[in-house]
Amino acid sequence: MRIYNTASRKKEELIPLEEGHFKIYACGPTVYDLMHLGNARPIITFDALRRYLRYKGYKVTYVQNFTDIDDKMIARSRQKGITVRELADQMIEEYFHDADSLNVMRADVHPRATESIPAIIDLITSLYEKGHAYVADDGVYFEVASFEDYGKLSHHNLEDLEEGASERVTDVEGKRSALDFVLWKFKKEGEPSWDSPWGAGRPGWHIECSAMSQENLGETIDIHSGGVDLVFPHHENEIAQSEAASGKPFVRYWMHNGFINVNQIKMSKSKGNFFLVRKLAELYPYEIIRYYILQSHYRMPINFTLSDDEDEDNPMDAAVTSYRRIRTSLQTLEFVAETAAEVGDKEIDQALEEAIATCRREWTEAMDDDLNTADAIAAIFDLVRAANTAAASGQASKTQLLNARKTIIELCHVLGLKPDEQEEIIIPTEVKELVEQRTKAKQERNFEEADRLRDEVERLGFRLEDTPQGVNIHLLED
């Protein structure tokens, strides 16, 4: 397998440091709010990587952190009138609701920054003793100039960075350069704090990930992943402090996913142009959200739109239609195989057998080529078309029809997709409201209005089933 390494800016053969075992650290969320679609992309992408490496027979130790102490956490907890810990507990529970629903496997370890304070203090102590850190008026800082290779990930030149930073004025007494970044922030009134050799305070963002990675995976790991927006300064700073402390390479392969944009602008909470996964899941099943993300190569930007205008293409509706083709094919293959002969037409069976082999080969080639899930899905669709043709002929053997079905399911499962399971039906709010109105109309014995409302529900693509326990809502069959 070859992956694009951000550090070398080229595809490289992916070889684990320890034979047969990959160690992966994935930058996790700051848990002050619900997950939006931009947050979901790296979670889904690198879950697919983990699943594929396991499929290929590797052991994978996967660590994804939770940043549960920073300025945003403190501000949001004050806004809600709860403690930072209470906020973190709530949001981590909400995170798992969305991540589990997206069929993202839980990490082997989900460390929290606040539960890793001893490791963080040990790492800062090492940097301080080796002359890479110093104490300023408001905290302990890493001296960027002390690390010769600073900029090697982002390919920024230190002199250029220093020249740009010199234009920024810092009011911090004792801070040596505007480039220097904080490792430990001294306590402020009303903020959570922990004791340290330099005084009570809390960790900076960058040091948290280095400490949690080293504590759970060791000083050198195979893969570090995250969004492309983390390349600089976060991941650059992680390299500097980690390698300055250990004297060893920190990460062997850096993988970064592209942005999700809204009208060509990066989706982010700060810009207010974001779509919460939780809200999107009220309109589309979580599995469709996952499928939508995997339809694009992970390094390419995705421009997301969600319009009510019938004249505009809706990418989520397109994903629903596309994914249902896989589901329908699996149902058709199962149905036709029940009555198919054990021995089919030789040419038809041979063509389907070749399509299965071609699909497996092209799917694997795509996944091995920098985790190209877009081309992998395209290979699955080639088999879907071939299998549908064989099934429609009425002359394919039961064995080959079921082999095709088994192959489609297997390859989808590696991507974290489950088209063989019952489809989750999302009931639009409009339909629910009509059902409530119909129930009220029936209670008032206004049966003409109740019938009208039932017809309106059917116009929207759903049918109603009245039972002693209440009304069941079903998807109207095409």
Key structural traits:
about 15% strand, four-stranded antiparallel beta sheet, 3 domains, Four Helix Bundle (Hemerythrin (Met), subunit A), Rossmann fold, 15 helices, alpha/beta, about 475 residues, four-stranded parallel beta sheet, globular
Q: Could you give a quick summary of the protein structure above?
A:
By secondary structure, the chain is an alpha/beta fold.
> Low-confidence spans: pLDDT under 50, at least 5 residues?
none
**CATH superfamily assignment of the largest domain?**
HUPs
Helix content: 40-55%
Structural class: alpha/beta
- Domain unit count: 3
Rounded to an integer in angstroms, the radius of gyration calculated over CA atoms is 27 Å
What characterizes the major β-sheet?
4 strands, parallel
Q: What's the CATH class of the largest domain, please?
A: Alpha Beta
